[in-house]
Amino acid sequence: MEKLVACVQKRPDALCRLICFPWAGGGTSQLAQWGKLFNDSIEVFCIRLPGRESRLEEPFPKDMTSVVNEVTSVLLKELKEKPFAFFAHSFGTYTSLAVALHLKEKYGLEPVHLFMSAAHAPNSAGHLALKNMALPDEDNEFLACMETVGGNYELPRNEDIRKNIALSTREDTRVFQTFSFEKAEMNIPFSCDVTYFCGSDDKTYDVQGWRELTSGDTSFYEFPGNHFYLLKPSNESLLIKHITRCIENAGL
Q1: Domain Thioesterase: where (predicted)?
Q2: How far is CA 185 from CA 106, 108, 112, 181, 213, in A?
């Protein structure tokens, strides 16, 4: 499990696990640290996909199905063991949704709460446009394209770092484009509450469709900042307080 999951603060007596799914090209270095910031009632797992960090030598995933199969097969025992919630940002939103849909359909398991961030609802025109977008072959053009669709954030100037970011982000984007969502197949797929977060200076996302994905409550919150608003310490602190409150109010 250590290959797939980063857990920097083990909490064996936690009431709930928060499974975090990073953005395209991202690793576990930021969200895994949340494990030190939550109280003892929540243990944080952060998903590490192949092709980065300690999995650098492994080939990138070919499609969303292979990601879903790995996450569910590795974590199934833990997900059956105690309640869990998902937090996911940008590309990670679709990974988490694909995993959640598979868990519900195959095992009857559902998160107690879905926390989604900076992404189009999967049943929206915005999501469809991204899914069908042509990806430029040249690295700088590709990164410029990602800035346009994924928010206004600064990329490092170092050429080698940019090249690595371009590679992992491109591979993750290809995985995202293999994710298909047909709401009609499952009617309303979830019954848990859904909370959607975004940055005030980020691009506008097509988000109203989140309401159609659950029979639970749907809430929307905006934080000051760009696509990576969640990395600002003041926003991070508020996010953690809000997520804690939602999980503790979920009647575990």
Answers
A1: 17-244
A2: 14, 16, 22, 9, 12
Number of domain units in the chain: 1
- The encoded tokens of residue 200 equal 């005030």
With beta carbons less than 8 A apart as the criterion, state whether 193 and 113 touch.
yes
Please state, as a whole number, how many other Cβ atoms lie within 10 Å of the Cβ of residue 153. 16
pLDDT digit string, tens, across residues 50-109: 999 999 999 999 999 999 999 999 999 999 999 999 999 999 999 999 999 999 999 999
Which residues lie closer than 8 Å to 234 by C-beta, 6 or more apart?
A: none
108-140: per-residue pLDDT in tens?
A: 999 999 999 999 999 999 999 888 888 888 888
By annotation, the residues acting in catalysis are 90, 227
| CA-CA-CA-CA torsion sign (86, 113, 99, 148) | negative
Q: How far apart are CA 224 and CA 229, in angstroms?
A: 7
- Give the residue numbers spanning the domain of 35: 5-250
CATH of the domain at 83: 3.40.50.1820
In the three-class reduction of DSSP (H, G, I as helix; E, B as strand; rest coil), residue 20 is classed as strand
Contact between 235 and 225 (Cβ < 8 Å): yes
> DSSP secondary-structure letter at 204?
P
